[in-house]
Specification:
CATH architecture of the largest domain: Alpha-Beta Barrel
Distance between the termini: 20 Å
Order of helices and strands: EHEHEEHEEHHEHHEHEHHEEHHEEE
CATH topology of the largest domain: TIM Barrel
Structural class: alpha/beta
Number of helices: 12
Number of domains: 2
Radius of gyration: 22 Å
Number of strands: 14
Shape: globular
CATH class of the largest domain: Alpha Beta
Largest sheet: 10 strands, mixed
Length: about 350
């Protein structure tokens, strides 16, 4: 089966890290109507969104409902991005941000994700706390008992308190077969809430294991991209241990309309792939050629660097008594596997 995107791989803007109204922390959005209008009025180059929430896919569910109702049709593809914070904490006393980018291709993906989250647990006061709404409310009340008058406040506090040990998270991910086959792990690279913030010498091993575990690095820093492509900054032996040649992608991390699709310094994320989850997987194999961070994609103005199509005269391939099309067109196409007819 060939891709429905007949021209093959093209540069498109992806924002893999976008929050939405109701996100569990630092929600500065207004209502959904304002958000929908803002997404629909966004720059036409934006094709893909990673709809992000903390420890859940709550905002993705609402987002999907609006998409199913016919809104945000300018967004070609959207997938859930679940943001977690793992321990130990950085020098700024913040958990390391790990993200699960989950394929929306299976029709039962919402149920599958929610089911997997019930098995992700931390222990507080000798009690197992699951990564579910009830579990997070309970965790919030353990931390701040006075919040009993407000379930939403207790839930938000529970999300804030839910920092899970890296080893526990890794074992959970690796034993969840569906999730392991349908999700990619991304780590934030910054010093504030990323792995670079583990500066204490006692955390060197932990920092290395976080990077080794991740498929993708989140950063808008050009030096970070060069380092993970093996062009300096990481010694060769260490690079091999960390499973280098990782793609570096960047999102707006928007918590407000003003920041929607608007990362600092216009460091937009461009990916040369079909706007599908299989297209996202392709960047793991060609991180240099398929990902670019900048205000425009590479060679955007150089038509000499682009092959639109190749036409071959039919007489080179003619066979007696067998009709042929007048032209054969060869294009760069990727087989994404089975297609699903539902909306993401």
């Amino acid at each position: 089966m060939v891709t429905p995107y007949g021209r093959g791989s093209e540069w498109r803007r992806w924002d893999p890290h976008v929050h939405a109204p109701g996100t569990a922390r630092e929600d500065q959005f207004g209502d959904w109507d304002e958000y929908l209008d803002a997404v629909e009025g966004a720059d036409a180059s934006i094709a893909v969104m990673g709809v992000t929430d903390y420890a859940s896919i709550n905002t993705y569910k609402t987002f999907k409902g609006h998409r199913d109702a016919g809104r945000m049709e300018n967004i070609v593809f959207a997938f859930p991005n679940i943001e977690f914070r793992v321990s130990p904490e950085t020098r700024d006393s913040k958990g390391i941000n790990l993200h699960l980018l989950v394929s929306p291709d299976d029709t039962d993906r919402v149920e599958r994700i929610d089911e997997a989250l019930t098995r992700l647990k931390i222990k507080r006061n000798d009690t197992d706390i699951s990564c579910t709404r009830n579990g997070l409310v309970r965790l919030g009340l353990i931390a701040k008992p006075h919040l009993r008058t407000g379930a939403e406040a207790a839930y938000a506090e529970g999300v804030n308190q839910f920092k899970i040990d890296l080893d526990v998270f890794r074992v959970w991910f690796e034993t969840e077969e569906w999730l392991r086959n349908n999700a990619l792990v991304a780590v934030q690279a910054g010093s504030e809430d990323g792995a670079a913030g583990l500066t204490d010498s006692g955390y060197v091993t932990t920092r290395r294991e976080i990077y080794r575990f991740a498929h993708i690095v989140f950063s808008g820093n050009p030096a970070e991209r060069e380092a993970w492509l093996g062009r300096g900054g990481i010694r060769p032996k260490e690079f091999a241990h960390l499973r280098g040649h990782k793609p570096v992608v960047h999102g707006s991390d928007a918590h407000s309309i003003a920041n929607l699709f608007n990362p600092a310094k216009q460091r937009y994320c461009w990916i040369k792939a079909d706007p599908t989850f299989e297209g996202l997987r392709q960047i793991l194999y060609e991180p240099d050629d398929r990902v670019w961070i900048g205000d425009a994609p590479p060679n955007a103005d150089d038509v000499r660097a682009v092959i639109d199509s190749i036409t071959l005269p039919t007489h080179h391939f003619a066979a007696p008594r067998r009709p042929r099309r007048q032209h054969a067109v060869v294009q760069d196409q990727v087989d994404p596997g089975p297609r699903h007819e539902h909306r993401q």
